[in-house]
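Handout, section 4.2: multi-component inputs.
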Amino acid sequence: MPEPLLLGLDLRASYRLRLGEVKAVDGVDIEIPRDSIVGLAGESGCGKSTLINVLLANIRPPLVLKSGRILLDGLEILGISREEVRKKVWGVKVSIVPQSALNALNPTKRIIELVKDAIRQHTPASDQEIISLCKRRFEELNLPFDSVYKYPHELSGGMRQRVIIAISTLLNPRLLVVDEPTSALDVSTQKQVLKMMVDMKKEGIIDSILFVTHELPVLRQVASHIYIMYAGKIVEYGPADSVFFRPLHPYTKALMYSVMTPEPESRARGLVTIPGEPPSLLMPPQGCRFHPRCPYVMDVCKKSEPRLVPLSDERGVACFLHHGESVN
Amino acid sequence: MLEVRNVSKVFTVGLFSRHRIEAVKNVSMSVRKGEIVSLVGESGSGKTTLCRIILRLLEPTSGSVIYDSVDVTKLKGKKLKWYWSRVHGVFQDPYAAFHPFYRVERILYQGFNLLPRLDEGEKKRRVYEALKSVGLKPEEVLGKYPHELSGGMRQRVAIARCFILNPELIVADEPVSMLDASTRIGIIKLFSDLRDRFDSSVIFVTHDLGLAYVVSDRVLIMYKGVIVEEGDPVEVMERPSHMYTRRLREDVPLLYRKWEGF
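Output:
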């Protein structure tokens, strides 16, 4: 097997609060193959944004790393100094487009100024070099180059998002991490932004994308692999089509049933509800964290925690219905 | 039951250079008893403006809204209270609609101001029953403040008000767009429960074509302030007549079919 672009093992990270410890990432193993688009699906509060921070080695109090190793493109990125991370990892090996990116640009600066600031974190390039780098990339992606001389508010939402993605990948990072990049856009603009990201991968500007969202239909369109996260843990993973059409974990099934798309299959299914709400990570339920909401709950689920066990076909699931192994 | 006749709304903005925005342009539509209708459009299409006009939170620039053969656009005082007890709104973020210092109990009791006098026992009975209908435990939530509830629970409280009032028409403006996937369907189901139990009509105002397609009896597609297409959801999806609907159908991500060229 070829070496994956990113390999994260036994990742554990918590927030230390006065009320106690919030184990937002609790024993996660994750692999991002080269030349792939990996979808990370989960609901708000499941720990997916924390997992992103861990994968980026962006660990700052109150977030504390408890254990884990990450190998990104041959480089061990946990345990090195923040200065080193900033120089050798961010922007070069991995870039992120955060959820709030649309509103994160400094409104008083033209976009080109922001680009210069960002690039100089990594290389001592001259203004001229940065501008020509920018220009080439914008041409490749069919974006109007004059938009870099505008202020953020002068661009439409979709254009702003595309410009952000283009400038955050100027140094050709191998991995692009995007957190709900299209949730604020209307569907036609969303499709254009998705298309641009897919094309960037095809052209080799980036190797792989980690796409974080709770919108399964979006992942269905772009992802090659899927990870499903629930209450700080990965509960299922595998090749996208196989997870979508043969979901094994009851939570994955519930997520699939909750999708409403304008297709005959969705309408025929009707409204299938699951009881309850995702648990608080401050006090997750004993045993399997999904058991209070699970229609197939058994005695063992209330007592011990199922381990994420690899099955055939590159798939894995953490559920006693599919194997008997538990943690400890 | 409800009829919107040639409604337009023009906003004027700017202090010196007056600038006119026509948010809703000469829209007519109607809702029958017990019907679930979805008004679909993207941001800026005028759907929320139309929704606020129907709820009588905004006055139209021209045209009228007829409910039970009464023109409600000019209603005031007692008559307006009567209208609000019959036509009730549920909004995207109930957090913004609830008084932050009021406990759930008080928020729900506010609803009784719109109704003829009831005795305390009857009020309590109705509040308890409403909360149970929306899947909440009265003893757990009544003493809580809105910020102590999750988004899904807040939306359930907002819908509990509908169960107390039994309105004939519920206008729900993006009621689930702030909620997570697994809680969304539960909330949508409550609206269809209201229809089944009280024969209430529901207008969903949404940008989500999938939601509209799955739950409604009829969809209205709104684009740039105009209703460009209307009909049975399956019909509209299979044979969209307007260019905008066609584009929407092509661009909305599906689960069972994949886009070309991706």
